[in-house]
Design brief:
Two copies of one chain form a homodimer. Chain A has about 300 residues and is α/β, with parallel strands linked by helices. The first copy, chain A, has helices spanning about 5-15, 20-25, 30-45, 60-85, 100-110, 130-135, 200-210, 225-230, 275-285, 290-295, and strands spanning about 50, 55, 90-95, 120-125, 140-145, 155-170, 190-195, 215-220, 235-240, 250-270. The first copy, chain A, contains ten helices and ten strands. Chain A is elongated, with a radius of gyration of 25 Å. The relative contact order of chain A is 0.13. Chain A binds a DNA duplex (30 and 30 nucleotides) through helix 3.
DNA sequence: TTATTTTCATAGTTTTAAACTATTATAGGA
DNA sequence: TCCTATAATAGTTTAAAACTATGAAAATAA
């Protein structure tokens, strides 16, 4: 059993076809056939049934595929990590949810990453669930994530900042003078929300369902500027993080009652090797507990 | 990077010596040197410093060794599992602590394993901590373990039976008539205990320290028969599982006050593939919740 | 210091195995 | 029935991994 044999096997499974797999691997078809045959000889059982029209995985093949994917992923990781160390240039693959990116990234780039000229930063912007999957697959090293889905023992994290979720309206809106507001007050207001995939939206909808209200959702969007512009037009009520209002003077935020806040953490997998650049970022976050917060307010 | 290269690298690390590693691997020394050189070329960094007296792992080498051991262990598992499936003969590697073995094994062999003639059972008898390590290293498939060290989320288990820990004395002993006894009553008695590595012993000692007593331990042994014989000689007081007294009519057990019991579970790693023979054993345990208990009493 | 031993790297050769090309066999579809 | 698609087989080439032999560097001993 060699890693190459397993790679070929995986490719055949993905394509359900030896010839296509060979093409994708840039090798000849008999080489792939050979590799599969050698695996079958070594293990003593068929991995595919070839009787019928198509290749179908046997019980043994299914099990091997599952274990193979794990092994190859780990092998690729070793390769990547070792090459990175060898090439001296550090790479940090960081996941950031769209909303938090606008807060955290400017601070990180001006106060942290610029201190490491040899550091190459790759930012992956994705939803929270998407980032979690990327982390699990080792496609990113760390991510900023709301500490909501309680992370199990296989995750490490350091707290970054606590963000306030506020209701926001135009300065000329009827509710603009309120010092705080509860969801029940908003049950008949037309609302603009971020899409369901944003977990803040989920919490707001849960809040409504908790008081047995069906909110009047006029629009759900993924664009912050859409929310800002529609709210500024005075027609509707929106929700966003308080810090996002700093840059839009035409809007005012009204704290929710009860308050709703989000603890954002920097998260990574426990079983992963913590590279130098990861360690540096963790240190920066730990040393500036309010750094990202205060910077946003400056 | 191939699995063989990593295997050679690991061997060199283990022997701190290329020549010895080559000998252990049954290949020539230049082959090993070559493999290491190829890894270093591929990764772009030295894995050892050879300048000085001996081979010393570099930072990169240390990291690679750590990741390599994981990868090779997983690769060996794949190999073993697939070969096992291919050879049709099933193998179950079961870990059993010495005390529990005398209870569980006869039941398992007469009521369960005998139903699977093609099944080959390997029993590993070891301490609880030893078994846990064997499980972690995938050197055994499952083990019977007291459910004391609370198992984290990376472990699966099914409860097997609850065993009573009792104080035991000879039939003619002064305390033989007691219906129950507390540790404080025993603070001046000469005791015979199993070695500290037995977790029941640890619990008894904890119990004594809890009431600020230093027990008078005359003898600690790993042999059940030693405990039985010394206790039977009427000189000392011992502790054991109640079921172990069934076969020794010259001894009587006195329940502890408060009672002390041990929940024994069948445990395995969550990330492991559950083979047919493992599944069969789990089913047997589930279907006969008191089977092992009652059998011991018959 | 100098000789001796240990140990790893290098050079050159052999062997093995993995890749290739060409062809055959088998099944589905026209 | 023929044609096409696809995998297996045969035979050859190539590449890499093993070997033997030797050289270089450092540690050990005289």
């Amino acid at each position: 059993m060699t890693l190459d044999q397993l790679r070929y096997f995986k490719a055949v499974c993905q394509h359900d076809n030896v010839s296509l797999a060979a093409e994708a691997l840039n090798i000849s078809q008999p080489s792939v056939s050979n590799a599969i045959a050698n695996l079958e000889k070594e293990f003593g059982s068929a991995l595919f049934t070839r009787q019928r029209k198509r290749l179908v995985l046997t019980k043994e093949g299914t099990l091997l595929l599952e274990m193979t994917e794990q092994l190859l992923s780990q092998a690729d990781n070793i390769n990547r990590i070792m090459r990175e160390m060898g090439s001296k240039k550090q790479i940090l693959r960081l996941g950031v949810p769209p909303m938090i990116g606008s807060l955290a990234l400017p601070v990180l780039f001006t106060q942290h990453f610029n201190r490491y000229p040899q550091l190459q930063v790759h930012i992956a912007e994705d939803s929270n669930s998407g980032l979690k999957r990327l982390l699990a697959d080792n496609q990113i090293d760390m991510a900023f994530l709301p500490h909501i889905h309680s992370f199990g023992s296989e995750w490490c994290s350091v707290p970054v900042t606590e963000l306030q979720n506020v209701c926001c309206v135009s300065k000329t809106h009827r509710l603009a003078g309120r010092s705080k507001i509860c969801l029940a007050d908003l049950k008949d207001e037309p609302l603009v929300l971020f899409k369901n995939s944003f977990f803040q939206t989920q919490r707001i909808l849960e809040g409504f369902s908790h008081i047995s209200c069906t909110p009047n959702v006029l629009l759900d969007t993924a664009q912050l500027s859409t929310v800002q512009n529609v709210v500024a037009s005075n027609a509707v009520v929106g929700f966003m993080f308080e810090f996002l209002l700093k840059s839009t003077p035409s809007l005012v935020g009204i704290p929710l009652d009860p308050p709703m806040s989000t603890l954002v953490s920097l998260v990574w997998k426990k079983d992963r090797h913590v590279s130098e650049s990861m360690e540096n970022l963790i240190q920066f976050i730990k040393e500036t507990p309010n750094g990202i917060c205060t910077a946003s307010q400056g």
